Amino acid sequence: MLKSLRVWEMERENRRPFFLYEEPFIDKAGYFEGLCKRLGDDYELLRKQAAQDGVELSPFTPQDPQRVAGMPPLERAVVHVERAGALLGERLDGVLLGLLPRQVRDAAAWRQSVAALARAPWSTRVLLSFFDPPGGPLESVLGAEGARFSVNRDELFDYLRQLATNKSAGPAGPPPPVPTEAQREEYERRTGQKLMSPDEGRALRTVLMDAAQHMSRGRHAEAAEAYRSARHICQAHGMLLEEATILVALAGLALAVRAPDQALECYRRAVAIGREKESFQLVAQAWLGTGAVFMMQKEYVRAAQAYEAAGDAARTAGVPTLRIEALRLAGTCHVLRGARDDAVPVWQKAVAEGAALDPQIRRMTTFREVAGELAAWLERNGLLPQAEHVRSLIEETAKGG
Which residue blocks in 23-135 are alpha helix, DSSP H? Predict the structure, then answer.
């Protein structure tokens, strides 16, 4: 959909630059604060690009900036959009703003926000669009009208398979360079895996495409067979990390057909490979999958242990956002088994991890959920100064700094 919009934007007859905002909608204030900043940044980038083509656009400065700065974030965003439309309207037709959140965590607040935007008295310089998938939260707000992006799955996979196998209907491209024997030996020495021939690479890509197509149609047995074939190819060439990625996919398939023991074995092997190859983000992902299996089985102690292991691996990998989520899930497991006090040390680790992040980044994590749980526990236990500190971090996160 995004690519289609960008193609549409580049059409010769289009006279409105597109401002497409894809950040998740976590809360109203944070979302529209971010939108205000993005509008200014994107406009300035557009202005610089226009200047390179010899076209001068006015700087992005709101009229009566003091009054605008005191507005609530949504109202301020409306002013910013109108300002961008007015400035671009001097040479073009205005602006198209597309709100396409990757995730909507608070559906009610999102509906209220969209309803408010729909009621705003927009000028003709502004066109507004929203991402509203079928069954999404906006049908009661906007109705069923609007553009629809329809994808024929079979045609899509045929097209992707052509790309993967270099067998498109277009003119043949130049063949890839053939490595010398010395280059092949150096590659295999450095990576510890065999260099695939072009035919072998095409075979692997084809079988992975087959697996994806089977998955999209719910053909679990056929998908599992395709993934097993891909795994054998990886094993034959010593491609351990690729094999581990396939193992994670096989674990998901095992869960889909209610085979948790097979899923756990796939995750166990993926963890081992990740450790061997020092790919700790992969290790974290495999431990997260392990925790999910144990949680489904209501083995909350083992699930918490797996999630904490995921958190440790995420810390080694340097992915704090993943560590916060893993620790949040570990704490949830302790709560579900009726041992909320055991969740507190885990929550404290998560809050400490989040506190070290820039508030803008922190806001994109589940920090506020875990910090809220910790603050509530601290208040119940009379630790009011500590609770007040955690609450201040939550407020700082909501404001983005």
Answer: 28-52, 65-69, 73-88, 107-119
DSSP element (H, E) containing 155: helix 153-165
**10 Å Cβ neighbour count for 298?**
10
Helix axes 107-119, 28-52, angle to 10 degrees: 50
394 pLDDT above the threshold of 60:
yes
The domain segmentation of the chain, as residue ranges, is 2-142, 299-401
pTM: 0.63
Mean pLDDT of 262-283: 94
Write the DSSP assignment of 129-150 as a string of letters: EE---TT-TTHHHHTT-S----
The model's pLDDT over 133-168, given as tens digits with 9 standing for 90+, comes to: 777 777 777 766 666 777 777 777 777 777 666 655
3-state secondary structure of 128: strand
Alpha helix (H) residue ranges in 237-366? 240-256, 260-276, 280-296, 300-317, 320-336, 340-355, 359-362
Query: How deeply is 169 buried, as exposed, middle or buried, from its count of CB atoms within 10 A (0-12, 13-18, 19+)?
Result: exposed
Strand order in the sheet with 18-21: 18-21, 95-99, 126-130
**Residue 134, number of CB atoms within 10 A of its CB:** 7
Dist. CA 124–CA 92, nearest whole Å: 12
| Structure-block tokens of residue 158 | 């045929």
* Amino acid symbol at 18: F
